[in-house]
């Protein structure tokens, strides 16, 4: 099951019976993929790595400087080892050469008797070529057995176990929410293994290999193999590639089956969202989905993905899987559905009603911290959470208010931003008024003189009016927050009294003006505000 032969295996062959390892004994497990006979000094550009070099030393002829240069080139080119025939060209190996080889674990082997290099190359090359044929056979055999396993397995761990048994290495599968070790590693050693994977030190002996498990361009896991007693070979990497492909196919099948089941529920979910199911029907449905499931009411969350590429189409599989796991961790049972360009989540509450909003807020906070823009190819995501209902048969009420909340997201000022319907307060009233009457006309009835004044004189009366009302009519506090002197503040208040009337701070009129200021910002964000005509003040 390998396309290489190690130096320690080569030393057991008949042409090496009288050979002596004089340096680099710690590197005898190095892989050899080819054998070269070399008598030139400038060798670096001629090597690809993993070659065993045979030489008589003719190139350096007892010149230690040339010898060291030759050795360093072999080490830098990741050659596997050096075999030297002791002759008139090379009779003594300097201690400095031995020291360098030991430091780099680079084997140096001496032939004290004359050997036929051609016989050595023929012998080792025949072994390597036969192993190449055997590797192809073994690889095909592994692929066939793995494909057969795919038809029978129920869990990805069975693939990992089959993979580990075949290669006899440590296997680590890094999933988003789980790390699987095959074979299992004691708890105190797991961190050491993970640190080793993270650092993945680059050394001539490659003991770690990794490959992502990707589905539709998204990485769902990473498969890592670690060898402690040998260098990983091309065969190991090919087997790793076949296994990651099989693992991706298995995960895709699981996702497909799960998503197909969910898609079959879309029609039922749509009727639920439209209010066509009774409490009895809903209880029967939940009993089929998960026996013993008890929900304390629920709420609907609508989502809209804003793509960075306008030509993108909505494929919410990854998003649904991601947001589902976050919601579930906060104590919600999640039902999902896609309707046109929106993704709808019905969140059944499994915990106490008092904490539903806090838990859902924590879920949004966690999602916002994730770097989802690259994986989803979206610039941002809008959410709208409807009214909480204690009866699941009233979920259509939550859905209706969730859609309204989602529509309002683009019109909210920064101060009024919220995903929750119950936080929108006056924005819901403004939206309703705007649908049935001319909201701008009402706003201008109260604020037109102030707005016109600001447009004509580039003033800041609207800003002053907002802050003055927010400070409950305190001139001193308003001046401080606007960073103006008190005299300027008095002048602006006098102008506001002239334009709005001296009674603009009376309770009813003040309430109306505060509402109109909020409506004014609302119209600005929706771009429904028409430029007012400036009159002589």
UniProtKB/TrEMBL annotation:
Record domain PucR C-terminal helix-turn-helix: where: 461-519
Protein name: PucR family transcriptional regulator
Xref: InterPro entries: CdaR-like_regulators, PucR_C-HTH_dom, PucR_C-HTH_sf, PucR_dom
One Pfam family named in its UniProt record: PucR
UniProt superkingdom: Bacteria
Purine catabolism PurC-like domain segment(s): 9-127
């Amino acid at each position: 099951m390998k396309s290489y032969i190690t130096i320690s295996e080569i030393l057991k062959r008949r042409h090496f019976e009288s050979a002596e390892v004089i340096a680099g004994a710690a590197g005898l497990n190095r892989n050899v993929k080819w054998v070269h006979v070399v008598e030139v000094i400038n060798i670096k550009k001629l090597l690809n790595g993993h070659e065993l070099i045979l030489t008589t030393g003719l190139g350096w002829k007892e010149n230690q400087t040339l010898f060291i240069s030759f050795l360093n080139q072999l080490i830098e080119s990741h050659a596997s080892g050096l075999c030297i025939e002791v002759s008139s060209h090379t009779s003594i190996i300097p201690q400095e050469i031995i020291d360098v080889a030991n430091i780099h674990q680079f084997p140096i082997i001496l032939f004290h008797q004359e050997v036929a290099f051609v016989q050595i190359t023929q012998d080792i090359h025949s072994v390597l070529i036969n192993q190449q044929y055997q590797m192809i056979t073994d690889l095909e055999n592994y692929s066939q057995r793995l494909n057969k396993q795919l038809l029978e397995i129920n869990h990805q761990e069975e693939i990992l176990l089959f993979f580990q048994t075949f290669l006899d290495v440590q296997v680590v599968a890094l999933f988003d929410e789980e790390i699987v070790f095959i074979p299992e590693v004691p708890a105190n050693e797991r961190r050491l293994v993970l640190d080793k994977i993270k650092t993945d030190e680059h050394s001539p002996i490659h003991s770690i290999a990794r490959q992502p498990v990707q589905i539709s361009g998204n990485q769902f896991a990473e498969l890592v193999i670690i060898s402690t007693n040998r260098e990983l070979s091309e065969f190991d990497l090919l087997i790793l590639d076949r296994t990651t492909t099989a693992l991706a196919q298995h995960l895709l099948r699981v996702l497909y089956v799960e998503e197909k089941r969910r898609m079959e529920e879309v029609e039922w979910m749509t009727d639920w969202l439209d209010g066509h199911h009774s409490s009895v029907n809903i209880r029967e449905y939940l009993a089929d989905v998960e026996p013993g499931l008890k929900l304390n009411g629920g709420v609907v969350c609508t989502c809209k993905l804003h793509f960075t590429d306008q030509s993108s189409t909505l494929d919410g599989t990854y998003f649904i899987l991601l947001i589902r796991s976050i919601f579930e961790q906060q104590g919600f049972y999640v039902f999902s559905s896609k309707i046109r360009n929106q993704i709808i989540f019905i969140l059944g509450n499994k915990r106490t009603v008092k904490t539903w909003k806090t838990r859902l807020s924590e879920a949004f906070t966690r999602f916002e911290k994730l770097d989802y823009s690259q994986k989803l190819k979206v610039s941002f995501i809008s959410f709208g959470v409807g009214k909480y209902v204690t009866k699941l048969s009233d979920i259509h009420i939550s859905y209706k208010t969730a859609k309204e909340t989602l529509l309002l997201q683009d019109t909210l000022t920064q101060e009024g931003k919220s995903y929750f319907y119950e936080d929108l307060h006056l924005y819901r009233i403004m939206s309703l008024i705007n649908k049935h009457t001319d909201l701008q006309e009402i706003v201008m009835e109260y604020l037109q003189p102030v707005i016109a004044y600001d447009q004509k004189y580039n003033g800041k009366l609207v800003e002053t009016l907002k802050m003055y009302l927010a400070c409950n009519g305190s001139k001193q506090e308003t001046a401080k927050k606007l960073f103006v002197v008190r005299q300027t503040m008095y002048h602006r208040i006098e102008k506001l009294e002239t334009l709005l009337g001296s009674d603009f701070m009376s309770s009813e009129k003040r309430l109306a003006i505060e509402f109109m200021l909020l409506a004014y910002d609302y119209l600005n964000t929706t771009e429904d505000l028409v430029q007012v005509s400036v009159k002589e003040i």
